[in-house]
């Protein structure tokens, strides 16, 4: 859609373009010439007829729009009670594995820059440290360029085989012997052995575990270094690395959920929100909360699923990392109703609503409304100025002392920039751009 120098006026304005949108200004050129006895003045100029959207009056307040007919609800169980909350799934683009960023309404590059700005924030580094330690254990740091020549990391690599040996002993011997579950680890086995004084029965395991636990403090200190934090987060910049999380674990003995944080949690916090992630449990067939940050912010709920699948993809809890590869946004019924009205681009009385599926380019656009202005773009949203100018040239004819004629020329040039303006008497001015 393209409109140049156009005027749109009404009790409400609702404009939507499926593709790109452009509001342009119409240049209007002029020229005059005044000839006198001694002087000639030439004026040239260019002003612009600006595009305008005007809502200066409205009818009586209309009734609230009727609720939309929504799709199938996904009932999710709360951790704190037996009540179910209905959520509605909203698909998010899979391109570039950027779904986590898209769910939060931020680009990959903007997100990484925001995270890197927290390099010297001790609390921020503490939140990302568990993810870095897990990457160390999985051997992922080896493939990140920033760690290849880092002496502090190279000195820690010798302990990696020790951790893998402890994990192997736990899975093949101790888990069954001590009656532990698949969700538990060799650390739980170590605690049980100490509690029941069984050290003599498992000397090889205890020797290795004690040796590794002495190193564990060194790994924790390493994972919280500013330099390590920075080098690690570059894995998300200019790549297709997908952000992840760690499932919460329920401690039956203490009756509490144990949470492990990540860069995903930190990014969500920096945007003022609390990360909640659901998945479809293959064992129960129900949607369950698998991760919930303990930050005091507005919750944003995501569904960990398989790309291209609607209604969730059922997996076992321990398979979420390997068999799920995508996040979609989940909204409650009220949130979905609000989103549907917004997506349907219906302007209320006294309001101006302008949206486009592609890029939006507004040149000198003048927008005036009574009850709020919303501008939305599926791509970039650009507002730019127009330049009005005037040139005045004066030619003066004079006689020299020898009787010959001479002319003098003086030129003045004026340039005026005129930008976009948006004015509303009530409510907000809101801009959205992908």
Average the pLDDT over all residues and give the rounded result: 88
Largest β sheet strand count, sense and barrel closure: 6 strands, mixed
Return the structural class.
Answer: alpha/beta
* Percent in strands: 25-35%
Q: Using DSSP, what is the number of strands?
A: 24
Helix content: 25-40%
Sheet with the most strands: spatial strand order: 8-9-15-14-12-13
Low-confidence stretches: none
Span between termini = 18 Å
Radius of gyration: 32 Å
What general outline do the C-alpha atoms trace? elongated
SSE arrangement:
Elements: E1 2-4, E2 7-9, E3 13-17, E4 21-24, E5 26-35, E6 39-49, E7 52-54, E8 74-77, E9 84-90, H1 99-104, H2 108-116, H3 122-137, H4 151-156, H5 160-178, H6 186-195, H7 203-223, H8 226-233, E10 249-251, E11 256-258, H9 263-270, E12 273-280, E13 287-292, E14 298-305, H10 320-323, E15 326-332, H11 333-343, E16 352-356, E17 360-363, E18 366-369, E19 373-377, E20 381-384, E21 386-399, E22 405-418, E23 421-424, E24 429-433
Helix pairs in contact: 3-8, 3-9, 5-6, 5-7
Structure description:
There is one protein chain. The chain has about 425 residues and is an alpha/beta fold. Helix content is about 25%, strand content about 35%. The chain is built from eleven helices and 24 strands. The chain has helices spanning about 100-105, 110-115, 120-135, 150-155, 160-180, 185-195, 205-225, 225-235, 265-270, 320-325, 335-345; strands at about 1-5, 5-10, 15, 20-25, 25-35, 40-50, 50-55, 75, 85-90, 250, 255-260, 275-280, 285-290, 300-305, 325-330, 350-355, 360-365, 365-370, 375, 380-385, 385-400, 405-420, 420-425, 430-434. The protein has a six-stranded mixed beta sheet with strand order 8-9-15-14-12-13. α3 packs across α8 (about 225-235), α3 runs antiparallel to α9 (about 265-270) and α5 crosses α7. The protein starts with a strand and ends with a strand. The mean pLDDT is about 90.
